[in-house]
């Protein structure tokens, strides 16, 4: 099984990305989703509705990140032989999740245009540690003062050459490259 840890600030589009990803993997990969949030099962409900073969919610009750022990508790509820891909959606936060290794093969950061172009400079720990970077909400670029050059320069300083997927979960622009990358990574391990 290939597994990813999706991290982002609240509202960047982690759950939206999962919702857009699942239908595109239908019939190709068997996917389990584990969602971390302070409270509610809103996100795991959305993942189940989007076609996840399994969707488990972890409520941290206040903790600002998932850790490997919480994840283990959720994994114990799954028959791991039944899945090709595990998507873990971490608690929305650009600080704490970066410090807790969950044991997933790849860490992925979902940045988004409305957050502002200064985030790599202000949250270096998060940007430094990820294996891939999704830049969501590119459909908002005409309406938001976001200097892509400045943003990418910050990313380049912290994480040279990190694979980057600019996309929009609203218009679907750029989603194909992300899906292809996921499929190729699953193929590499399964
Ligand atoms: Mg979410």
Account of the 3D structure:
This protein has helices at residues 14-25, 42-49, 68-75, 119-122, 124-128, 148-158, 175-189, and strands at residues 2-8, 31-37, 54-59, 85-89, 106-112, 132-136, 163-166. By secondary structure, it is of the alpha/beta class. It has a seven-stranded parallel sheet with strand order 3-2-4-1-5-6-7, with helices on both faces. The model has no long low-confidence stretch (mean pLDDT 97). The chain binds magnesium ion.
- Report the structural category: alpha/beta
Discrete helix count: 7
Order of helices and strands: EHEHEHEEHHEHEH
Describe the sheet with the most strands. Answer: 7 strands, parallel
Strand content: 15-25%
Question: What compounds are bound to the protein?
Answer: magnesium ion
How would you write the strand order of the largest sheet?
Answer: 3-2-4-1-5-6-7
Distance between the termini: 6 Å
Query: Mean of the pLDDT scores?
Result: 97
Rg, please? 16 Å
Segments where pLDDT lies below 50 for 5+ residues?
A: none
Based on CA inertia axes, which overall geometry fits? globular
Helix content: 25-40%
Total number of beta strands: 7
């Amino acid at each position: 099984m290939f597994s990813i840890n999706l991290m982002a600030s609240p509202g960047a589009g982690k759950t939206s990305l999962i919702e857009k990803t699942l239908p595109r993997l239908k019939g190709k990969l068997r996917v389990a989703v584990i969602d971390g949030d302070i409270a509610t099962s809103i996100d795991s409900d959305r993942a189940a509705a989007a076609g996840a073969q399994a969707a488990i919610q972890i409520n941290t009750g206040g903790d600002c990140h998932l850790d490997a022990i919480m994840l283990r508790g959720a994994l114990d509820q799954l028959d791991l032989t039944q899945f090709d891909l595990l998507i873990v959606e971490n608690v929305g936060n650009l600080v704490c999740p970066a410090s807790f290794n969950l044991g997933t093969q790849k860490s992925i950061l979902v940045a988004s245009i409305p957050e502002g172009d200064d985030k790599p400079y202000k949250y270096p720990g998060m940007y430094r540690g990820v294996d891939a970077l999704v830049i969501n909400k590119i459909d908002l670029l005409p309406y938001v003062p976001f200097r892509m050059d400045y943003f990418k320069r910050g990313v380049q300083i912290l994480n040279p050459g990190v694979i980057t997927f600019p996309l929009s979960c609203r218009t679907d622009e750029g989603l194909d490259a992300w899906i292809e990358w996921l499929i190729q990574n699953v193929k590499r391990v399964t």
